[in-house]
């Protein structure tokens, strides 16, 4: 049995938290001093991290749009975070008003926000679940008839996998999803790269050590290994800016992004 680091147990304002750091970078108000401390130190080294957070949002919009336009009507947003507009369901519903979106996060604070904001929407379901236990998550999605795994789905894994350490086997997690994804399904991800600014990597690693906001940066080859058996769309695993246009600037923190599919 695998020993996971603990999932967040509610509000602990003294420890940096991934959802709240990201909220701060996106200009939100649902964050505490410990989160702002880490985020501000990130911004001191790489002020463009805030812009990168918005590129990441654009990448998510791109991935949802592409899947919805290809006829996918079921979305699983893994590590969905505190809802920020435009969220996955807003993008999907613009293309198909009957699309179903399940927002998955292990952070009860994220769930509280998501439930308050999305709880009344019949086709959007926020749930608390840990991506590191894919069997439990998939079983719940089946049992509650939230997702029909006989039909194509789009899995969003944006800004999440780098919170899963090697010893927690992110490759096995992705391969478990691949096994249950029907042909025509897609998976979009972003991942913190070891090519990021060295000072940024060292400092953010020290500032978050032992917390759930700790990031495992990976090389492009290591990221590719997480998606064994998937077929990659062009341009493959590249900084997310390359998915969005030719002229977007490079950033100190490099997020690699990819979209892959099950044939
Ligand atoms: N995907 C969203 C986006 O791109 O806007 C939010 C990204 S935020 C940086 C990362 C989110 O992943 C946080 O809300 C965090 O709670 C969640 N997360 C991290 N590890 C997780 C896990 N093992 N299971 C479920 N959620 C997780």
From TrEMBL:
Biological processes per GO annotation: methylation
GO MF annotation list: methyltransferase activity
Entry keyword set: Methyltransferase, Transferase
InterPro entries for the chain: SAM-dependent_MTases_sf (IPR029063), SAM_dep_MeTrfase_SAV2177_type (IPR006764)
CDD domains registered for this protein in UniProt: AdoMet_MTases
Domain of life: Bacteria
Name by which UniProt lists this protein: S-adenosyl methyltransferase
């Amino acid at each position: 049995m695998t020993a996971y680091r603990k999932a967040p147990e509610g509000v602990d304002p003294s420890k940096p938290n991934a959802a709240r750091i990201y909220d701060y970078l996106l200009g939100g108000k649902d964050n505490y001093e410990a989160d702002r401390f880490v985020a501000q130190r990130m911004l001191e080294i790489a002020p463009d991290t805030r812009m990168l957070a918005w590129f990441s949002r654009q990448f998510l919009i791109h991935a949802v749009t592409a899947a919805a336009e290809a006829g996918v009507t079921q979305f699983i947003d893994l590590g969905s975070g505190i809802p920020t507009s435009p969220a996955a369901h807003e993008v999907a519903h613009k293309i198909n008003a009957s699309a179903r979106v399940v927002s998955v996060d292990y952070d009860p604070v994220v769930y509280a926000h998501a439930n308050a904001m999305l709880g009344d929407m019949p086709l959007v379901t926020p749930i608390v679940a840990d991506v590191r236990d894919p069997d439990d998550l998939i079983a719940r999605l089946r049992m509650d008839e939230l997702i029909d795994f006989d039909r194509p789905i789009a899995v969003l894994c944006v800004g999440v996998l780098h919170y899963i350490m090697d010893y927690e086997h992110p490759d096995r997690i992705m391969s478990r999803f691949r096994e249950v994804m029907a042909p025509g399904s897609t998976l979009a991800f972003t991942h913190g790269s070891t090519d990021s600014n060295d000072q940024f990597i060292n400092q953010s690693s020290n500032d978050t050590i032992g917390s759930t906001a700790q990031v495992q940066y990976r090389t492009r080859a290591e990221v590719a290994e997480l998606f064994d058996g998937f077929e990659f769309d062009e341009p493959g695993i590249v900084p997310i800016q390359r998915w969005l246009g030719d002229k977007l600037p490079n950033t100190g923190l490099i997020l690699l992004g990819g979209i892959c599919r099950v044939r």
